[in-house]
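Long-time lurker. I teach an intro course on protein structure, and each term I like to show students one example going from raw sequence to a predicted 3D structure in token notation. This year I'd like something fresh instead of my usual example. Would anyone be willing to generate the tokens for the chain below so I can use it in lecture? Attribution to the forum is fine with me.
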Amino acid sequence: MNRLVFKGNEEMGAAAADAAAQTIRAAIANRGHANIILATGASQFEMLKHLTAGKGIDWSTVVMFHLDEYVGLGPDHPASFRKYLKERFADQVGPLKAIHFVNGDADDPGDECRRLGGLIETCPIDVACVGIGENGHLAFNDPPADFETDEPYLVVDLDERCRRQQLGEGWFETLEDVPSQAISMSIRQILKSRRLIVTVPDERKAEAVKNALEGPVTPQCPASILQEHKDCSIFLDEPAASQLAT
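-- Reply from a regular --
Happy to contribute to a lecture. Here you go:
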């Protein structure tokens, strides 16, 4: 695991975006296309800003998979992750080869998981750009996370700390407004990515970062599984890294 600490969020986001862009360009050069996973949330603001502003990527050769989405939320809801990625990514880079959003308002979330699973199984992922939650979650796999399932996407229950994080970041007006379930990419599917770019700003993530990077690998801290990935780079700002021993 490669750990990098930066003074501020802007510098951290730029470095993470540069690392992701290098991997995307290399995949296009080698195979003519790239498959990527993108996350959402406040942790990804600066990374996506720099990634979309970068040069030298033919986005028309890129397939994007979406990490997670709330069950029951339509794409026009202010907290919708589809809306987030459309505005902060897709609209900025122009047409992609394909973009596979998670339809959180699908009539049957289980069917939606199976649809997405069939798509991603044929598209080996070159790079996944993700974050870590305040409760140590990876995607919406809250503790205790399922480290065993081979299903690419799952319907998961969101714990209260996760829901309070979404409220605290300003995505919802009340805790009751935050959905109690989501469709999430599974832990094993995330780990299948050839490279992981993990961007984690803010002091409120410091405890989760310490547990993920220096604690035991355990479903009680889902992001701790990152220790087992062969090509994982963690980009932190100084507040997020403040509890690390080294």
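Some talking points for your students: The first helix runs from residue 9 to 31. The radius of gyration is 17 Å.
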